[in-house]
């Protein structure tokens, strides 16, 4: 069996399409309820990386057939001793050594770039949830990875929203939020809010539970926010944002985002939600999430499903999501290994 690993970038259109096919087959098997891999997002991502990140890709070929893909992330601004790796293998070619060959390629490249730790994510079955293949867990365990942070994916069925419950959440929230007002925008924030968006983004990993994960928060500034939005736009994604401004200071102190792609028009991701620590206790997190959801659905009425992730121990945000109607689907683990 001759497995050939071929590194590629955006200029190699055939390898990019081969990698896309591998990803699509893998996701369809491992996460059948997930939106399919978006070709626009995947292909554009090869030439529009996130600011401060560098990604290296390779396809594994077996007898000329593309059977595996590896994406090695090498942060360039923070986490200079860290890397993250994602390996997918076509289900019909698993347990033949393809993943191992791709991992060795990634590990050698990570070491050559001075990295000392590697992060990999796996998915597991939750009690009562849909069954998930444990191949990823067994793979990372066999290579010395240790679980560092547990997360849970929750899903909101938009067709079954409890509107009276959302009304109550808003009424309870606004009763404690005197002195704040809402702001909304699509994609890039207005210039007067960019510095506050950058500040809140840089706080996210400081405030969220991180378990044993050794990962530095980003040092985000307005320029990085602009570059990040350019990458999002290039990938065909649209983001709806709602925030809360403290009227006395004019500062953005709470912020949430819903994200939808160029394909899978039925689906969205609930992304960042954060409240500046000095302004907690006013139900701002619940307010911006419910307000953003209702605005988003008015603008995107075809959406039926929204997915979000929370650290398994993030009780406060989980309580908000559960009150909105999000329900657990599966468990995800951030695993880390030291070289």
Give a description of the structure.
With about 350 residues, this protein is an alpha+beta fold. The chain has two domains: about 5-115, Gcn5-related N-acetyltransferase (GNAT) (Aminopeptidase); about 155-339, Gcn5-related N-acetyltransferase (GNAT) (Aminopeptidase), CATH 3.40.630.30. It is about 35% helix and about 30% strand. It has nine helices and twelve strands. Strands 1-2-3-4-5-12-6-11-10-9-8-7 form a twelve-stranded mixed β-sheet, with helices on both faces. Strand 4 (about 80-90), helix 3 (about 100-110) and strand 5 (about 115-125) form a beta-alpha-beta unit. The radius of gyration is 21 Å and the shape is globular. The two termini are about 30 Å apart.
Structural class: alpha+beta
The total count of helices amounts to 9
CATH architecture of the largest domain: 3-Layer(aba) Sandwich
Whole-number average pLDDT?
97
The number of E-state strands comes to: 12
Contiguous uncertain segments of 5+ residues? none
Task: Describe the structure in brief.
It is built from nine helices and twelve strands. It is an alpha+beta fold and 339 residues long.
Topology:
Elements (H helix, E strand, L loop, with lengths): L2 E6 L4 H18 L8 H9 L5 E10 L2 E11 L6 E8 L8 H15 L4 E9 L9 H8 L3 E12 L5 H12 L5 E7 L4 H17 L14 H13 L3 E9 L4 E10 L6 E9 L8 H16 L5 E7 L3 H10 L2 E12 L1
Parallel strand pairs: 4-5, 10-11
Antiparallel strand pairs: 1-2, 2-3, 3-4, 5-12, 6-11, 6-12, 7-8, 8-9, 9-10
């Amino acid at each position: 069996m001759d497995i050939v690993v071929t590194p590629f970038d955006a200029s190699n259109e055939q390898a990019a399409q081969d990698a896309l096919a591998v990803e699509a087959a893998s996701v369809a098997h491992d996460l059948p309820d997930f939106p399919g891999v978006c070709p626009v997002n995947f292909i554009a991502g090869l030439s529009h990386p996130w600011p401060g990140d560098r990604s290296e890709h390779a396809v594994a070929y077996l007898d000329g057939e593309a059977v595996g893909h590896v994406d090695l992330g090498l942060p360039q601004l923070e986490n200079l001793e860290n890397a993250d790796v994602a390996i997918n293998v076509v289900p019909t070619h698993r347990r033949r050594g393809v993943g191992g060959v791709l991992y060795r390629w990634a590990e050698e490249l990570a070491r050559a770039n001075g990295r000392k730790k590697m992060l990999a994510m796996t998915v597991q079955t939750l009690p009562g949830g849909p069954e998930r293949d444990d191949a990823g867990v067994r793979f990372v365990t066999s290579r010395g990875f240790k679980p560092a942070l547990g997360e849970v994916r929750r899903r909101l069925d938009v067709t079954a929203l409890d509107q009276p419950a959302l009304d109550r959440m808003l009424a309870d929230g606004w009763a404690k939020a005197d002195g704040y007002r809402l702001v909304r925008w699509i994609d890039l924030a207005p210039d007067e809010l960019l510095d506050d968006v950058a500040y809140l983004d840089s706080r996210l990993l400081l405030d969220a539970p991180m378990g044993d994960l050794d990962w530095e928060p980003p040092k985000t500034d307005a320029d990085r926010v602009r570059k990040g939005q350019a990458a999002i736009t290039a990938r065909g994604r649209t983001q709806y944002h709602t925030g809360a401004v403290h009227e006395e200071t004019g500062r953005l102190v709470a912020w949430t985002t819903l994200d939808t792609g160029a394909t899978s028009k039925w689906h969205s991701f609930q992304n960042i939600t954060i409240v500046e620590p000095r302004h907690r206790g006013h139900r701002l997190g619940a307010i911006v999430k419910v307000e953003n959801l209702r605005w988003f659905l008015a603008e995107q009425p075809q959406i039926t499903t929204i997915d979000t992730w929370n650290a398994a121990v993030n009780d406060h945000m989980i309580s908000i999501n559960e009150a909105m109607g999000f329900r657990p689907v599966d468990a995800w683990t951030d695993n880390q290994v030291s070289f």
